[in-house]
Amino acid sequence: MNAHRGSLSTAAAIAWATASLVAAALVAGAPGAFAAPTCTTPRSAGEPPCNPYLPDSPWGASHRNAYAQASSPYPGIAAGAKVSAHHVYLPGIPIQLQFTSKYRDGGRAVWGSLVDAFDRRAVFKLDQRSGRLIDLYIPAEREANPPKTEAGGVTGAYSILDRDGRFIVPRQRTIDVFADSRKGDRTSPIRLVKRFAPPARAFCGASDKFVGATMTYDGMIAFATERGVVGVVPRLPSRMTAANVKTVSLDPSHCRGAHAEIVSNSIAADEDGGIYVVTSKLMHRVSWNAKRKKLTRAWRGRYVTKGATSAVRLGPGSGSTPTVMGTGRQRDRFVAITDGAKLMNMVLMWRGAIPKDWKPIAPGKDRRIACEVPVRFGDPHATSSLSEQSLAVRGYAAINVNNRIPDESPFAGASGVLLNALAALEGGNPANAPHGMERIDWDPRTRTCHRVWANRGISVPNGIPTMSAASGLVYGIRQEQGRWGVAGLDFRTGRVRLDAPAPDGTCTPQALAGLPDAAKAALSATIARLPQSCGDSFYAATEVGPDRTIWTGTFLGVTVYRQTG
Asked: Is residue 3 part of a domain?
């Protein structure tokens, strides 16, 4: 048990106390929006319209919602609060966690999928109140004819919970749907509902596979494949048929071109049918027309794709899932990414019509770019920076974290998934860990971006940050002197106001037992050198959960931080 003392700020407490629920007429009544059942969403500045097909929970999809903002209106751990921390070991890495709606007893379940080098397609379910593991489903142990293991990587990292409690994981070349084996019983084992194999036109060649996924505002699962096919399929298992799969290729020649665009991040969607996908070459909007059941390529924008090279990168070009920014009908509206320049930029692109009076920000730049700001993380002399994490966005504010490892010689010679794993674990080396977090905002009055603050000292080596509007804190899984924990930075100033240690992150023999022998052999020297590696955030999302909790995936597990006083 670990603790830290303090109290919630008065301003944050008042903000949360005055928050209320509003009907999702914002979704149904907005021009161009889809008709949808009623749902509720907290009244909070910058909160996207409620998606009625996601669960009524604090975090029901990858990056929290269809906008992929990774920020929350709900209260997280308060500045200076007492904190207890609990860890659950798992045989793989959970990148994203999803919370169900409340069951009849008031509890919730937490679902996740595990990724590993051999992609055993494991999924798990935890009890939200206790953190106890309810069930671990590994197809090879449960099914008579399980799918074969294949090379892992990003596929299966991004998952969705629907409002009916189904856990949906596009993985390799199938969409796996899971649910409670006893309907309405959160403590029941996991049941495979359906494994749907879309037709060949959903992929660009025999080696293509799923990467990103989100829920559209009319209840379709939107997906993107590694080689740039974007599609939608109904979320209901009974309607997952080849005829109901609609696709479009980002490459107009549909895979006949010599240089395919590679997707290595998840995707986002808005209430107007926009689906946002960033590739190794371009930022794309695909439009989904629910009435006509048709996908079309709407626009594509050029951004800087070359310059950044690092072992921590999972693919070329941008390292961030596109994030939808701007939630009011009268406000500027963007899609936000980081680019692939050696000195990384935060980039905003107009997500709808470009203002008629808008001129390119510089000669040769795509007119769709609204701003392009170098991210220096507080170092005015910086010549390089890099992030493999999605932006945390609230209103017009975006939080960037630095992932550039200064010295990559410890894993020289490694390649592929092993290289990424070694680089992620190296983030726990205090002598070699990256440092820096920065907030950059769009100013609608000047129509420019500007830096609000930078914290040069904080080290969030490889985890996706989050933010609580109610608590006024930005949370990140930080490394300090080789030990892990959660840090909370003041959203307005960037000053650290919460610092709570993780439980002992030693990778015990029991924890490592779940790894295949080949993986243990490849990683053993690094784990011995960095003994707290099982506390490493390992590309996972930091999430604001129910009841003032912060959740994160780790290398071989999940860590939960709970406010206790």
From this structure: no
Chain centroid, CA 107 distance in Å: 24
Largest CA distance in the chain: 63
Domain tally, the chain: 1
Q: Are 360 and 366 in contact (CB under 8 A)?
A: yes
Rounded Cα distance between 529 and 520, Å, is: 14
Per-residue model confidence as pLDDT tens for the chain (565 residues): 343 333 333 343 333 333 333 333 333 333 333 334 467 777 788 899 999 999 999 999 999 999 999 999 999 999 999 999 999 999 999 999 999 999 999 999 999 999 987 789 999 999 999 999 999 999 999 999 999 888 777 899 999 999 999 999 999 999 999 999 999 999 999 999 999 999 999 999 999 999 999 999 999 999 999 999 999 999 999 999 999 999 999 987 767 665 678 999 999 999 999 999 999 999 999 999 999 999 999 999 999 998 767 777 778 889 999 999 998 766 899 999 999 999 999 999 999 999 999 999 999 999 999 999 999 999 999 999 999 999 999 999 999 999 999 998 888 888 888 888 899 999 999 999 999 999 999 999 999 999 999 999 999 999 999 999 999 999 999 999 999 999 999 999 999 999 999 999 999 888 888 777 878 888 999 999 999 999 999 999 999 999 999 999 999 999 999 999 8
Neighbouring residues of 449: CB distance < 8 A, sequence distance ≥ 6:
346, 348, 370, 371, 373, 440, 441, 442, 443
Cβ proximity of 560 and 106 under 8 Å: no
**What is the CATH number for 267?**
2.130.10.10
- What is the sign of the dihedral through the CA atoms of 212, 92, 532 and 522? negative
Range of the domain at 373: 10-563
Query: Distance between CA 487 and CA 477 in Å, rounded?
Result: 6
pTM above 0.70, yes or no: yes
Residue 166 lies in a domain: yes
Please state the φ and ψ torsions of residue 222, each to the nearest 5 degrees: -95, 140
Site of tokens 């975090």: 59
Contact 66, 268 (CB under 8 A): yes
- Quick check: is 2 in a domain? no
